[in-house]
């Protein structure tokens, strides 16, 4: 089952527009049945990819209100960046993410929205198989674990080896919410976390996040991989549990996950996504009216009932859950979200630089002769971003190489060139980041493309060292067909001969230039990675490469 | 052929007559009037009955919502009137635009919405009382005492409330930087922390720190008053044990009592076990129409004098000049309300409110609590500002002497 390569930064380049979906009731006259329905227009919405499951409901909204919703999907962080940079103004009327909290911490973000109305809610929780939960001595009630606090989950990680999948907090709202919630719970101040509280709780957080054995940049992909690995782990790590939205956990359980998946409703609460449909300040009057009609429709009792029944998100209309189903949505305390950008940023920085398992990354960089010119310039730009060259942007802050990360740069052409490995220190990383930048700036394109020889070399390199508990991964960036040295079949055989631990190290191929997307996808599949399409307009422009490299950070 | 044209001609005639009839029935095109309002009144203006009544009176009223501070400051872009929700905002607006006319069609005291087990825990802690009319009184001085000690819900004297996890006792408010509702909270807590005097300058020292903590300890604040209300209503007592709200949000909401009013607005009903608590003291949000044009003036007058619009406002939970109408509407909806709200403090002068908000802004930006006031130096004069700018019209009904 081959999945198409994930297009990097799909939302950024509207021109690419691959993800655009027009939800129009074809031929349906505007106005619908409600006499007061003013909408005849189209509402352009920049949305989080987790909202794709609302499409059937939006089709119905188009029929009943005449407002056609044009959703374009992107990741939360990317969306925030577009809004803060003012790039969303011209292209969208509204934005719809699982939460605006992160956006609202930025002064530019707060000013960008005219109205925000929460449409539904879903807390971010741990989901675990009921048998595993019972092994841990937890009380598995009717479809839910209760009586467990986040500190109990930390104890299960430490004492019973509980492990779980969770998205990257810098890339995805569910990971961010989990980090914030767990930090608030373990700091146990009873109030919102302040920067000064973070040092005191770092040790406990490191204990909790030692259980995170699988990470990803998107909650949807994480869920898909989680299920895939529960079904047939192969050599890939298949964690016991997963942190995700309650709605995602319930939907997976409904569809059937091997071993089951029940949400843990912690006694000390969670951070809840509230899915605010938000009108941009820049929207015109017609869009404002359409927005109003859509919000009213989505909050109406029948639609709220449908939201609860089909997406498993909690409705904002208290009566929309039938009496017998209320048990699946027990009330939860809300763990406080930091009041200031400084607290949130300090927490995320601490997570990457000091708390989570360190990253071990190998970058296989194609420096064959076809890379000359714009392509090598794009590659250098991408590495500049990863070395914190753009400290003003959110990406520059949170997608750079992390403290304690070991980064190997392994250039290849007709053969592999000499590799260099850098260790980014926890404190004062700038000199080492500067060395990485300078090293990549010095690479000169020349020769053919021996990608699989380079891959074999990368695995050999990892085999020689003890990657231990870290998140090891390999990025393969190549701009052409692999035409020199080992071919894909040869590599498949070589991969099968690797020690079990190494076979689980994922490869993230970057499809660029003339490289073969199908083959790169097979390579990702074989190693448990994900391929990223950086072809942009088709000829491999540098900006797309930069986006792909940044996006991959969420998976490392 | 001939018959067909004859038919066509008579059809045209019929159409013409119908058009003429329609024109006579509908009257001339209604006049379009635009206003900039606080978001808490958006549901009122969106109510089709309100729109219909305005149409009957010859107007189409279009509104844009703005935070109360933004109403005073922003470029109103040809608006006919502003409609902020507090005296300080109204004062700032009039100064900004050099106007002095005003209408006060309705008002709303600030309340604290809770849930029965939460209210009972507060009663056991000696901070709340249940009254005979079914409403509660929240002793704000006792509340401030408990928050100064950072008391958690589960540790409240008298048994506590277990549903809020590790959380501290804190009333959920909106963002004081943008929202009027939070500024009203500021008026009450600053009054109490100032020895029960309306503050004449932004409090510094311990009182200033306490005020900042009341906001910052809540974490990231919601932007507008609708958002936390919906969460209070939908997500249970543990999520939002206590919410600072306009009484109108409570009295005008749908709920177990089965009220009219906001029915078409979807979510926004009250949860089972909702209780309304009147803070002692509280303050009053005076919704004030500030005309910029003759048409805007007319809208203000109609909102104040037209009995039908006054009736609709009462249905949305606002208190109008006829207090009995409000009380009756709320009781019909199964909402206990207090007939007379006696313990009310006035908002501080605009400069003082601004000064307090500026300090909070600083606290949010610094990521912590403000430094002691004397080290910061306030650019504003901070002195006692006149309660009203010179030339302001008198005859503002004094909320402290409100009659039922």
How would you describe this protein?
- The complex is a heterodimer of chains A (556) and B (404).
- Chain A has 556 residues and is α/β, with parallel strands linked by helices.
- Chain A folds into 3 domains: 6-118 and 276-312, 3-Layer(aba) Sandwich (D-Maltodextrin-Binding Protein, domain 2), CATH 3.40.190.10; 123-272, Periplasmic binding protein-like II (D-Maltodextrin-Binding Protein, domain 2, 3-Layer(aba) Sandwich); 357-553, Rossmann fold (3-Layer(aba) Sandwich), CATH 3.40.50.410.
- Chain A has 21 helices and 22 strands.
- In chain A, strands 1-22-21-20-17-18-19 form a 7-stranded mixed sheet, sandwiched between helices.
- In chain A, α7 (173-187) crosses α13, α14 runs antiparallel to α16 and α17 packs parallel to α18 (488-496).
- The radius of gyration of chain A is 23 Å and the shape is globular.
- Chain B has 404 residues and is α/β, with parallel strands linked by helices.
- Chain B has 2 domains: 8-106 and 285-332, D-Maltodextrin-Binding Protein, domain 2 (3-Layer(aba) Sandwich), CATH 3.40.190; 109-284 and 342-401, Periplasmic binding protein-like II (D-Maltodextrin-Binding Protein, domain 2).
- Chain B has helices at 2-26, 42-46, 48-56, 68-73, 87-97, 116-124, 140-148, 180-193, 205-216, 226-235, 247-251, 294-305, 307-315, 323-332, 350-366, 373-376; strands at residues 31-37, 59-65, 81-83, 103-115, 128-130, 136-139, 243-246, 274-280, 284-291.
- In chain B, strands 1, 2, 3, 4, 5, 6, 7, 8 and 9 form a 9-stranded mixed sheet that branches.
- The termini of chain B are far apart.
- Chains A and B meet through β6, α11, α12, β16 and α13 of A and β2, α9, α10 and α15 of B.
